[in-house]
Amino acid sequence: MKTNFIKPIVILASALIVNTIAAQDIHFSQFYMSPLTVNPALAGAQHDMTVAINYKDQWQSVASPYKTVAASWDMRMMQSKNKKGFAAVGVNFFSDRSGDAKLGTTQGNATVAYHVRLNSNNTFGGGVQAGFAQRSISFGSLTWGNQFDGLAYNATLPSGEPAAGATVSYADFGGGLDWNFDNRSGAKNVTDNHDQKINFGIALYHIGEPKYAFYSASQEKLFMRYSVHGSALLSVPNSNIAFAPAFMYEMQGPSKELYAGSLLRFSLSQDSKYTGFKQGAAISFGGFLRAKDAVAAVMLLEYSHYALGISYDVNVSGLKTASNSRGGIEIALRFVSPNPFQPSSSSSFFN
């Protein structure tokens, strides 16, 4: 009896999750490791080149796992003749699959950005993004109330649902602005821990609210997403410690999300400015809170050009009864050029 009582509750919770996720964009707990899903203006904003790969596996304890994969590349391309600014381009891709119905979105985007040098430490830029997306669902995996014959579920009975396509495609557009401060730009002394970096931006996605309904008669549209984000790296002088706070606030239709927290970063070694043989490294630990939803524990390991981030979400919302407080694991890989532990070095891609 206990099992029969709990199962319908879990199924209902799963259905509510599907409806919620269908109305919102993908989001990563390590959003700072997926720049082009946060703001098109982040292309080229902080590094000459960035390559990132992200993977999230969520809610295995509730229903079929919700899996999201994303990849991005962005690169500075050219400076203005007076070196007062520079252009950047980028591409990104993501694929998201959720629930037993395999509700999914696959999208690819191209990004162009331009950044103005306000002075040696500050830049201000804007970016635009254009993409193409396809939304899909497996109707064969769904069951309907009309297929209940009074005693049990009967798959041979008609669902009574109107005809619908299993896929829908649409064009998608976005844009944003970003301010970046880096006190080590052009610095010659890289032997101590004195990073002071701040980034702040705003972005708008799904301009024009594209229609993405499976039913031809439906007027369902993808709500525009408004994002405000910020991050920093604040070193404690004469130590190997730095704080890396970050936040993101988003609004999309009736949905709102505030996500904020910080990492505590420990420098393990500094690159040699003389030989380049010794590779810089750092390790960070911390946590983030997604308001009324989850707490994420995060670890970030950096070595020379590379970074590996691992996080795990612990559910704290009403869903925790069904999920047993388990959320999902997320893994992020990143490569940047030039080496962030040698700020005075220049990338071979951009001079």
Name its key features.
351 residues, 2 helices, 50% strand, mainly beta, disordered C terminus, globular
**Uncertain segments:** 1-23, 345-351
* Largest sheet descriptor: 14 strands, antiparallel, barrel
Enumerate the strands of the largest sheet in spatial order, edge to edge or round the barrel: 1-2-3-4-5-6-7-8-9-10-11-12-13-14
- Taken as a percent bin, the fraction of beta residues is over 45%
Helical segment count: 2
The beta-strand count equals 14
Distance between the termini: 70 Å
Mean pLDDT reading: 81
**Radius of gyration, taken over Cα atoms and rounded to an integer in Å:** 23 Å
Helix content: under 10%
Oligomer: single chain
H and E order: HEEEEEEEEEEEEEHE
- Determine the structural class based on helices, strands and strand pairing: mainly beta
| Coarse morphology | globular
